[in-house]
Give the backbone structure.
Amino acid sequence: MRSIFRDFTHDFFGILNYPKEKWNDFWVFYRERHPRVLEEYMFKNNLDVTLLAQALDGLERREVDRLSQYWEINGPIEKTRVLKELGRMSSQLHLEREDFVIHILGALGRQQHLIIPTSKGNVVMIDLLYCWKEKTIRDFLSVVLNALDDFIEYSSINVRHYMHGSEKAERLERIFECIEKKIVGHSLEEKLTIVVKLLHKYVDYYNWTGFYHVEKDSLVLGPYVGEPTEHVKIDFGSGICGQAAETKRVCLVPDVSKESNYLSCSARTKSEIVLPLFAGETVIGELDIDSHFQNSFDDLDREFLEKTCRLLIES
């Protein structure tokens, strides 16, 4: 069986060789060793340099040291169990396709696992620190199997930027059905949080996904996933978001560099779509999505997102 399961926690435990005041320096080195995974981890958890420093400051050396000692003794046993089960599941996981790997790392204890699309396939990253804090580490096989179940679902509906036509339409419809189920019984604010996470997870070219609330004649940032933004308040008419709120129309921008009214959030943003949320005829909020690719959004995206916005208000 190909090597789909790798333990990189020794890289994370290198943090113990640094004094606490130098843990930011360690993270820079650590991120260089695992750039794509840790970049996505920071996006998913809305971490900029300042918030990362606060998160690292909140980690306890004693807790990381205890985890290191535990994993040194029990890690080999847990990994043997996992490898045996992966071997048993090889046909179910279609290992011959070589479209995913499982990496065990340490991070900030924010979430148990994360699925990261890369140019070479998908990485299913498991945060050992989260497992330690939540005490799921003592049944690590279940942690891995839960992550794999999530990946199997993800791989069946994930939309990549090169997809078009019927395949893309079918997958967007399945994402919509997933959203429809997940938001049942929640408040509007909870629904917004659920939706941004699902959109960011399942559509790989939705690189910043967030909602704005309307307060008087301004847009105020609500739930989002992606790089922290300085645009936490936007006046109507200002930028693409303010333009969409003022005109009450969807704004689909294939190339933001050609827009004189564009408010830059990230140098990597190449295209954007903004959709107003309506209560009757009144705009009460917006869904804003940025992509790192030009011409990312087509009519299928627009129809899917408009339907999602209506669902949030009507459900």
